[in-house]
Write a structure and sequence with these properties.
Blueprint (H helix, E strand, L loop, with lengths): L8 E2 L7 E2 L2 H15 L3 H19 L5 E6 L3 H15 L3 E6 L8 H11 L4 E2 L10 E5 L11 H12 L4 E4 L21 E5 L12 H4 L1 E5 L14 E3 L2 H5 L16 E5 L6 H13 L4 E5 L5 H5 L6 E2 L5 H4 L4 E4 L7 H10 L5 E4 L2 H8 L7 E3 L3 H8 L3 H6 L1 H12 L2 E4 L4 E4 L4 E4 L11 H14 L4 H23 L9 H8 L2 H14 L1
Helix pairs in contact: 2-3, 2-4, 3-4, 8-16, 12-13, 16-17, 17-18
Length: 510
Amino acid sequence: MNHSAPVITKICDSLPQYSWRTEQIRQMEQQLVAVQHVSMYQLMQRAGDALFQALQLRWPSARHLWIFCGKGNNGGDGYVLARLAKLAGYNVEVVAFDEPPPGIPAEQARRDWLNAGGKCSGLHALHGKPDLIVDALLGIGPSTPLRGELLAWIQFINRQTVPVLAVDIPSGLNADTGMPLGGAVHAAATLTFVGLKCGLLTGLAADYTGDLYLSDLKNGVAGYCDIGGIHIMSYDRVAQSLFPRPRTAHKGDCGKVLLAGGGPGMPGAIRLAGEAALRTGAGLVKIFCHPENRQLVFSGRPELMFCHELAEDTLCWPDVLVAGPGLGLDEWGQQQWQHLLSYHGKMVVDADALNWLAQEPQVRHNWVLTPHPGEAARLLQCASSDVQSDRFAAVQELQHRYGGVVLLKGFGTLISDGKQIAICTEGNPGMASGGMGDVLSGIIAALLAQGLPLYDAACCGALLHGKAANEIAKEHGERGMLASDLFFWLQKLANPQRYQHGKNADTNSQ
């Protein structure tokens, strides 16, 4: 066995390129065992080593541990940690939900724990107050709702007033969807193994995982995993699409965007989308809106052009059309939507245009749809809870039914073109305010107008949108963030050579 310490990476410090489904993770474990010529128990010992290292790094003063172990390999990881901690002088109490069946690595881990002088007990035998609880009950296996005693144990853990370290994934959280299975452990930190699980990055996972850490258990040996996963967007990848413009570029080279919306009483959405398109680099931006909103939409931003009507010649002008911000669900909105359907170029469809589309579904291959879960539910004729219960399945079904590229908003935004899925982890709760989605529509339209393909523009747009919000949160916090606050950072981030140069200069000066 290789006894070198496993490498632990904090996810927010260095995000991996991919995440994987549960079955893929199991295949990767088998590849790891085969290529490195180790047993599953040796892999479990590496996991225990990594857990002990994480415990010491995150809670250096913790000396009294409650470790909750299940009967599977997740529990085995807990037994290995318990043995290591006991040998290091920690006060360790292991609470065993059930004994592992004979012949699996977890059974050997339990035996080694007992041979080291440890013991296993039930909830009734716990005493005092620990410094830390370790959740090694379930791992990635469960996919159906939890009931009975197991759920009661999870509720018991959540009632304690001490931090929890989750092993691989908080018990009760679906590793594929990020949704709790009737209940899940609320962890202060989660150390996941082998690869990043999809369910850690979307759904409701952020409310349960705490800080995410990863140990791939490869002990420095890399380059042999050939299992394709869900791509995790990064700014470095986006920067490759935002190359510097030629010195001879003019506004006609940078794309023309027409935005249609802004129905009665709703001037803000279309204005935000239009300015976002400008700030992300569109050469020319026109807005069509209800006559009563014109003064409000165009005041203070003379760079926005005015469109009188959605006539045939008007719809021949843009490279990209944005339909929906503030469009409304009244008769005026319906009339404009019918006009917009005669446009057959590249489109970004958002907000009320999605609601009109849900009433008369059709398939196109040159549009980007950007629904939030409620709009997605209307498009799929289901409840928003159904969408959230498996966001990966929902985004794939949306793309299948409507074509083009679909961007499903929410924690862990998902983008699908029918062949591939990407996930964007940028963003924060400060974005839960009016107008944020309208800004995203304008960003994607500008990127399309500048020549990015549909899928790349949607991925790039989601990343710029979320990262701009994160930069604001670093300086001012999340609460009170406005959609228009993103414009300053959008311009910076849309120029990666300058942004990255500034970041490097800041780092070098420290």
